[in-house]
Amino acid sequence: MTQEHLIVEKLGPVLSLTLNRPESLNAFSPQMILGLKEALKNAQTDEDIQVIVLSGAGRSFSAGGDVKTMGQSGAVQVYEHIGKLNELILQMKETEKPIIAAVHGFAAGAGFNLALACDLIVAAEDSKYALSFSQVGLISDGGGSYFLPRLIGPHLAKQFLFTAEPISAERLYQLGVINFLYPLEKLQEETTKLALKLAHGPGKSYGKQKKLVDQAFTASLAEILEQERLIQMLMVQTEDHQEGIKAFKEKRKPEFKGK
Fold first, then answer.
1. What is the dihedral of CA 113, 118, 121, 124, to 10 degrees?
2. Taking a C-beta distance cutoff of 8 angstroms, is the pair 208, 200 a contact?
3. 236: which residues sit within 8 A by CB, 6+ positions away?
4. Angle, helix 203-215 to helix 239-249, in steps of 10 degrees
5. pTM for this one?
6. 192 CB contacts (<8 Å, ≥6 apart)?
7. Which of 51, 140, 164, 237 stands 20 to 30 A from 153 (CA)?
8. Which among 214, 241, 231, 202 is positioned nearest to 51, based on CA atoms?
9. What is the pLDDT of residues 30-76, one digit of tens each?
10. Left, alpha or beta for 12 (phi > 0: left; psi -120 to 50: alpha)?
11. Of 69, 104, 87, 88, which Cα lies nearest the Cα of 181?
């Protein structure tokens, strides 16, 4: 299904979301943000969907904000637009299913931050990144001020944000921001392999683990320990746990169903 500025495809247990404004390097639009929110909302309640893959059509993942329209909006319009973007970012983190960013070409500004909001990043070796907000006298939006310092530390995050310098995929891979790095021609194939591997894993376990890891940056050790205890009480009652134990005893690979 193609929405305005977004291609939504259900590929078995994998939901593919493709940003689709290739003529503007997939710069954000209100329609794109709304489409992503609706697709994620539907995916959360669709038991057939186990993994979500986010990618970009054309030459790049996303250039972030649309530079062509900058300066045309007033403060109130900007406030409302970023509010919608914030809702999307929060929804991505609240979705209890793994979200994989498949990045090629450029991921700049809020486009880079959109990738950071995903749970895993698979990238092309020649992809390039930049937090270019300072070049137009702005600050980072889309959660970059939150995600990046937690991944690479405050000093390096400030360097990238202040200087807007280009960042290579290799450097981000070495810093642990990118999980997997492949030649461009293998990006789609390898992303699909990863998505299917996760899709055939214990989906409920992944969803709960995602939330615990994200909460660990703001919660105390005591709070995380208690959450682990409460959630584990639920997990031992799942079909996947019973299947995992049975498969271990029978010395075979488990056949998880995400239930």
1. -60
2. no
3. none
4. 110
5. 0.93
6. 14, 53
7. 51
8. 202
9. 999 999 999 999 999 999 999 999 999 999 999 988 666 665 667 88
10. left
11. 104
